[in-house]
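Sync notes, pocket subgroup
Present: LS, DG
LS reminded everyone that the earlier model was apo-only. Rerun requested with magnesium ion included. Inputs:
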Amino acid sequence: MPLLVMKFGGTSVATLDRIRRVAKRVGREVANGYDVIVIVSAMAGKTNELVGWVEETSPLFDAREYDAVVSSGENVTAGLMALTLQEMDVPARSWQGWQVPLKTSPVHAAARIEEIPTDNINAKFAEGMKVAVVAGFQGVTEEGRIATLGRGGSDTTAVAFAAAFGAERCDIYTDVDGVYTTDPRISQKARKLEKIAFEEMLELASLGAKVLQTRSVELAMRYKVPLRVLSSFEEYDPNAGTLVCDEEEIMESNVVSGVAYSRDEAKVTLVSVADRPGVASAIFGTLSEAAVNVDMIIQNISEEGRTDMTFSCPTNQVARADRTVQDARDKGLINFHDIVVDNDVCKVSVVGIGMRSHTGVAAKMFDALSAEGINIKVITTSEIKISVLVDRKYLELAVQALHDAFGLEKAG
Ligand code: ADP
Ligand code: ASP
Ligand code: MG
């Protein structure tokens, strides 16, 4: 039997009515002759509520218990989806992560999938089950504890199942009808892309476009899973949505294909650190041990053997970063005069594989920002992206200015 993986995000399963609506879609694929693995998220808002409860109960929570609580949202949806399908006479049952069992690394709240054995689910398909409804975002560690895959992790569950079961395709149903040139909620001029290359999607996701979790794109790329993003709110159309595929499948590539942003960034400067070998290693080694996600790094020019070291990290990690470097200073591991934190910045990035063969993209980007009077605080580049940190109040303006400057509203 050919097999499809269909993943439904939080807004697509936000109410019993919506669950019934998407269950009909699943039923249609069963009628088309497919066995289906459905991956579900928690109902919209549920995971945030659960995270809030954990933080209120225990600010410095035990991540294993965090996972026990936040994974529960998906369990509810999986059961409800299986019941809905059964009501439609579609043979279905639900599976929690540990029942599959989807095995993960022991890094709670940010676990990685290690293995998905297919025998349990395949045995049920062989007995006539048509739909396996799997709770997304969760698995089980070797120690038998529940672990979650990081926010947005149901996308990764879906792609991993598609790879493990050799699915014909992995369809990610969400609240927008595809991947756009930028977040359609920020720019009305955002244009839906028919296709996007894995590499570009990977950059957009890792730079903040939350339409797909970064890890899901990595897996799709590695295991060559045909991945489609489409809306669960629109009428059925077999060609709907955006296909994430190999670069070679895209006829024409733009120099820049998308603009991404990440709203909650902070810029941290350690003032006056010694400018000698081993200092950067000591600072960033300590931060990494404390699991601070350092993103951009700049080291300023040196004067009289001392320099300033600036890095960026998510705003909710600033307290930990601050404590970590202060502790390291107290222990004599590192040395600096002062720490200066700017909590009101955001990161805006342009992405495109065409950048590999074109020059002048950075100049055009900086020009567009300066025309709007937006000051750039930090810049980083890689082969197919350029990112800048700017004041958060300019986020929308910067995204729109760059979208205009690179002509993204026009069909490519
Ligand atoms: P789900 O709950 O279905 O997983 P998410 O909220 O995680 O949905 O992801 C969908 C959201 O991603 C959209 O509502 C949109 O605001 C946002 N988004 C950000 N960048 C993009 C982009 N380039 N294209 C499409 N959507 C984007
Ligand atoms: N429910 C989880 C979250 O909100 C996982 C997901 O929806 O992908 O992050
Ligand atoms: Mg999501």
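DG: The longest strand covers residues 258-274.
LS: The radius of gyration is 23 Å.
Action: DG to write up.
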